[in-house]
Each structure stands twice: as structure tokens, then as C-alpha cells.
Amino acid sequence: MQFNLLREPLKTMWPSKQIRVKSKTMFDKALVNCQYSMATFSTGERKHRPRGDRKSQEISMHLRQAMEATIKTELYPRSQIDIFIEVLQADGGNYCASVNAATLALIDAGIPISEYMCACTASLGNGDVPLVDISHLEEVSGGPSLIVAARPLSGQVALLEMSQRFHLDHLPKVLDRALQGCRDIYNILDQAVREHVQAAGSAAGWEGDVAFAS
């Protein structure tokens, strides 16, 4: 399955399975395993090492941090949930697009989550103009950027990362813009999920409207 939200990550979600390495077994919850990589053709320059480099390992760790904050891991003790992300086209915001795609993959696989986990970037343009969902060119322009992964309905933040220091006067409005971006992305994802369920229900011959839990 491929999800396109300005960027193009290819996501694969494996339902829970037993852990092969016994030393990693958690007896009260599932182990979440996230692996992030980029296709060799995802950028203008061919990557010689699309996975396993320091940046990919860092993003994989941050992905796991975000996913563990929303997956109901207590329902799958002694199990492992694998999430694989491969970016096919990189134009900035790779981590955020990966988080949003992984959230859809979890829902599609039927893995219970507490709430949608959404991620968005924000920055400043022309000195003090807030920008949201910045592109690669905006990322490398030299200005500070902020990455936020959050549960939009509850407002709980799972990850907050700055590329550079923000002036204290600017940080609140940049953070607010990033959180608003997460809420906007939530609306897009939720609408897509509802339409998918309605279409699947119609194909299966369900009668009446499909009810969604709030």
C-alpha cells in the first residue's frame, strides 16, 4: 500500500507475531520494531546506502517512540509488531510522512491504537513568518525547523525535535502552527479511513451507515 501526502513513503505493516529472539520478549506488552529506509532513487542523487546509515537509524528510533505512544501494546504480550517504511520520493518532511503513513498502516492492519498519531513540521520564513509542512528546500535553507509528532485529539506530544535553537518569542507560535498542522492532517487521515471503511462495507453488502467510535 502506498500513501501520498506531499511525500511518498511506502509502508508495510505486519500484524503481531511471536518474538524469535527470546531475550527481547516483553511479558506485559508487545515489542514495536520500526525500520526506516530510503529508496536509492528517492532523491536527486543516488543513495549508495539506502538503509542502515546513522540518519535512518535515528528516524527508526523516533518512529518507534511515536508508535509506542499510541499502540495498545498491552493487548499483545510476548509479541512483536513490525513496521517497515521506505521513502520513494523525498521532498522534505520524511519523518512526518512516515509517521502519518504508519498510522494508516496500523489502522488498516487492525492493530488497536489509542488515537491517531500525526506528525508535522513547522519553521519560520522571512524572519518571523510561521511556515507549516516545510519542503526540502525550506529545510536546507538554513533556518530553524521544528518536528512534532502528537495525538491531536488529546494534545499529547510524543516527539518534539528542533534542528536549531528558536528565539523564545518565536517558539510558541511555531509550536502552535505545527500542532495545528497535526490536527489538519488528522482530519485528512480520518476522512480517508472513513471513506475506505464505507467503500469496503458497500462492497461487502453491508446495509445502513457505518458507525464510528469517537
UniProtKB/TrEMBL annotation:
- UniProt-recorded name of the protein: Putative exosome complex component RRP41
Q: Name one GO cellular component term.
A: nuclear exosome (RNase complex)
Q: Where is the Exoribonuclease phosphorolytic domain?
A: 26-112, 116-180
Q: Does the keyword Transcription regulation apply?
A: no
Q: Which family does it belong to?
A: Belongs to the RNase PH family.
User: Which Pfam families does its entry note?
Assistant: RNase_PH (PF01138), RNase_PH_C (PF03725)
Its principal location? cytoplasm
The subcellular location is:
Cytoplasm; Nucleus, Nucleolus
Answer yes or no on keyword DNA-binding: no
Q: Which UniProt keywords apply?
A: Cytoplasm, Exosome
**Swiss-Prot/TrEMBL GO biological process terms:** nuclear mRNA surveillance; poly(A)-dependent snoRNA 3'-end processing; rRNA catabolic process; U4 snRNA 3'-end processing
Q: What Gene Ontology molecular function terms does this protein carry? A: RNA binding
